[in-house]
Amino acid sequence: MPFFSVRDVHAWYGESYIVQGVSFDIDKGEVLSLLGRNGAGKTSTLRTLARTDTPALRRGEIWLDGVPLHKMKAYQAAGAGVQLVPEDRRIIGGLTVEENLVLAQVTGKKGWALEEIYDHFPRLYERRTQDAVTMSGGEQQMLAVARALARDIKILFLDEPYEGLAPVIVQEIEKIVRQIRDLGITTIIVEQNAIAALRLSDRAVIMDSGEVVFSGPAKEVLDNPQLRDEYLAI
Ligand SMILES: Nc1ncnc2c1ncn2[C@@H]1O[C@H](COP(=O)(O)OP(=O)(O)O)[C@@H](O)[C@H]1O
Ligand SMILES: [Mg+2]
């Protein structure tokens, strides 16, 4: 069985049928780019896989390392090692950087220690006593990723981690994602900036109108102008 397996997943927001039969697999330690135009259903798919209440999963199976996520609620999926970093990052204001990290550690007992986090994110060490929301967008994204690592983690979902960041900061976050990949943490990255996502991915899935229209090696998308034209506008 693949490390992470999504099998014919269907999900609804109330009466709206949005995720329409999505399937793909990821091996342990791989990075997968989940791509597609605005409104294609990428965020909805990540939310479904993380078992948030909406959209509601009504059909299909989701397996993580032999564990049936499709039978779980969001908090149970998180306990099983699913960590979603949403687009809005959900950094907690009024708490310092370190308090944000410690709070994340409370909910996950097998996550990274503070020392380990600061080793990989020296910028967060420098900022550790600062109110987290006063940091720059790039630093907040760093904190959001670090917080996911502080919890029990088996698979990381990043929803548009480069969104709203200047190109030089994108490069910095990209370096972090590369580090995470080198540590062997299985990752799904959703990005509008497809080129940036593809160049650090093993696999790619392209969605359109809630369905998978391509699934294969990331390199194939980079080399296929027709796919890029039709679904990615790059
Ligand atoms: N909470 C919601 N209720 C109803 N429809 C939604 C909700 N969130 C997203 N949608 C719809 O689901 C579709 C896919 O959205 P989304 O998953 O956010 O796409 P993407 O992340 O690829 O841009 C869109 O048509 C969007 O309008
Ligand atoms: Mg989205």
TrEMBL record:
Gene Ontology terms, MF aspect:
ATP binding; ATP hydrolysis activity; branched-chain amino acid transmembrane transporter activity
Taxonomically, which superkingdom? Bacteria
Q: Print the keywords alphabetically.
A: Amino-acid transport, ATP-binding, Nucleotide-binding, Transport
Q: Which InterPro entries match?
A: AAA+_ATPase (IPR003593), ABC_transporter-like_ATP-bd (IPR003439), ABC_transporter-like_CS (IPR017871), BCAA_Transport_ATP-bd_LivF (IPR052156), P-loop_NTPase (IPR027417)
Name its GO BP terms in alphabetical order.
L-amino acid transport
Query: Is-annotated flag, keyword Hydrolase?
Result: no
Transferase as a keyword?
Answer: no
Gene3D superfamilies from the entry? Answer: P-loop containing nucleotide triphosphate hydrolases
ABC transporter domain ranges (all copies): 4-234
Membership in a protein family: Belongs to the ABC transporter superfamily.
PANTHER family given for it? HIGH-AFFINITY BRANCHED-CHAIN AMINO ACID TRANSPORT ATP-BINDING PROTEIN LIVF
Name of this chain's protein = ABC transporter ATP-binding protein
Source organism per entry reads Ferirhizobium litorale
- What lineage, starting at the top, does this entry show? Bacteria, Pseudomonadati, Pseudomonadota, Alphaproteobacteria, Hyphomicrobiales
